[in-house]
Each structure stands twice: as C-alpha cells, then as structure tokens.
Amino acid sequence: MAACSFLAVFVGSIFVYGFPVFFLHIQRDLELSSASTALIFALSRGEAGIAGPITGWIVDKFDSRPIIVFGALMVGGGLAILSIVHSYWLFIVVFIGMVAVGNNTSFGQTFLAVINRWFIKRKAVAMTLIITSYTIGGAVMVPLLSRGVEALGWRSVLLYSGIFVVVLAVPTSFFIRRSPESVGINIDESPEAPDQPASGAQRRIADNDFGIKEALKTTTFWLMLCASSLRISVTSGILVHAIPIMTWKGESEQAGADLIALLFFIAIPARLFFGLYNPGIPTRYILTMGMTFGALGLFTLIFVDAGWAVYTFVAGIALLEGATTLNWVLMGQYYGRRNFATIIGIITAVYSVGMLTSPLFLGWLFDETGSYRTGLIVFLGMYAASAIFFFFSFRPTRPARPTAQPG
After folding, report:
1. Which fold has domain 2-179+209-391?
2. How far apart, in whole angstroms, are the C-alpha atoms of residue 102 and residue 65?
3. Cα–Cα dist 21/240, whole Å
4. Would the pTM count as exceeding 0.85?
C-alpha cells in the first residue's frame, strides 16, 4: 500500500496531471496548432484503450514487480529521448510508444489491481488513499514542473523527470507484492475477510466474484461503463487544455498552473472525505453528487464572466474528482477481486475513445473559433448524462452457478 502510494505521488502523477504544464511550450517550440498539440496527449489516452484489456489480463495473471520495472524503464527512457526530439511525428511516436505504454502498463491499473487484491473490508479506504495519492502528486508536481520549465526550459525538465522516474520506481517496486496469496496469506482467513455466518452455507470470498461474461451480462456494468466513459472523457479533455483554458479566461500561464495545483489541493481533502467517511449514503448517490458539483463548476466557467468564476470551476471539478474516487471502489464492490483488472481494462478500452477525441475536439474548436465556449457546453451535457447513469447503477446480482452433485 505504502509503496504504491509513494509511486503514485511522485511518478504516476507526472503523467496523469503534470503533462498539461508542457502543452503551450510544446505548441510554441514545435510551431503547432492547438489541435495538433492536443493530438499528442489524445493518442496517449487512445493507446491506453487499445492496450487496456491486454494490460488488465497481464496484471491479473503475472507478478506486479516486473511490470512496474518495465514501465519505469520505458517512461524514463522515453522522457529522456523526448528532451532532444525536434520532429513532431517522432515526438508522437516516442511519447506514445514508450512513455504512454510504460505509464499505462505500470502506474495505473497495476496499482488499483494490487490494492483490490489485498483489501476486502477496507477496500474503499485503501482505494481512496491510492487514488488520493495521485491527487497529492498533482498538487505537488504541477507547480514544481511549471516553475522548473520557466527556470530550466521544458526539455531539461523532461530529461530530469525521466531520470527521477527510474531512480524512484525501480527500487520501490521490490516492496510491492502481487497479492496476499503470493506471500502465503489466505485472504479468507485474514483480517480483511468480511464477517460471515459460520455455517455450512458459508461461501468463499472468491466464489462471490463475477466472471467476465457474467459481468458483461449485467445492466449495471453498461451503465457504469457509460457513466465512467463520459466522466473520464470530459475530465481528460479539460485537464489536457487546463492551462490554455485558464489563459482563455484571462489568467497568465503561471497563474493557470497554480490554479490547477489549487484544484488538486482541494481535491485531496475531498477525496479523503468522500472515500473515508461513510454516512450511509449509497456509493452511486455520492458519485451522482460529485458529477453535479463538476457540472455546476463548469456551468459557472462558461456562463459567468467574472474573475471568481475560475475559482468556482476549480472547486466544482475538485469536488467531482473527490467523489469519483469511489468509481473504481464501486466496481470492486460489485464485481469482486478475481477479474477486477480485466473488467477495468474493458471499460478502459471504451472510455479511451473519449479520452482520444475530447482533447482533439476542444483543440479543433479553439483553432476554428478562438474560444473554448462551444466545446465546454458539450462537455457540460456529458457531465449531466454521466450523473444520470451513475444514479441508476444498482448493485448487480450474480447469476446462480450449477453446483456439483455428490457421488
């Protein structure tokens, strides 16, 4: 748990939240349009979708340590190469083929799968802490990267970031164990096993896990897939263009980076509150509330022409990010441990289409109109639809399985 959180703070957050810092610098250095620059980040998210089911299968089947080491070397080497690349298309190839592949393989699904295997009773707490670690990293790394770029140049910061990733991730990976079973712990007999009546009808925890086909046959899976895809697609587009959006609203680049860091700072207590406090409200209702907060913040940014609108937007997205920590917690609660990464990988394959198109959509509209307004209005409708889908995501019932007859 501690090792995964450490890497999420200092390594995973660089890619997840830190790269928008480089958006305008890459655009100016390589003389690109907004859409062309967005394509770099969009393709990296599209790669996650193509590889999502394969990555999920690998994470479910193999030890986590070599996967993390592989990813660290890919990310570190890729960032070092990018620091000397001056060709747009070569930049895309290296960014997608090395940095994105390494990050998506090692610093995303792998951490969530490890946590999901180790925790049953405290699953919500553990996943909240690991997902909050990325947010802490964003709050810390975004202003550091922004100021580093201003002082040293974006290419030097990429090089040092690559070295930083390898130096931290490789030794830390040796403290990560794939599952309790991999170190001789029976999860059914551990403190994490849920309280069950001691009777002959008692079933093993693993027996309650959904199979892949069983999960796909539930209506809830498809509602969650739609809700998650809409949410992540919109948030991805907003975060890729976050600093340009802030400059469009009249802020400087540095002020924009500081506002995004503020977003992550607010999201830290929000994620801890929503993830750790149990008011007895169903998780799907909390997810719905989070989407509503985000929609209200985006509405203010679009339609209110005042300086305070950007702060309302930041607060709304931060609260959304806080509540949606429970997105993957709910998937783990609904569908179990055994096939968690594979199920998440299938969802990743779908929402990555939105992650690919949403930054391009915003960039193209900005190139055509000089404004983000129209694109953000579309995103507002997508947030509202996501809230509705989460609201109707009831707990699925696993179909009865045939039992072996005695004799």
Report:
1. Growth Hormone; Chain: A; (1.20.1250)
2. 13
3. 9
4. no
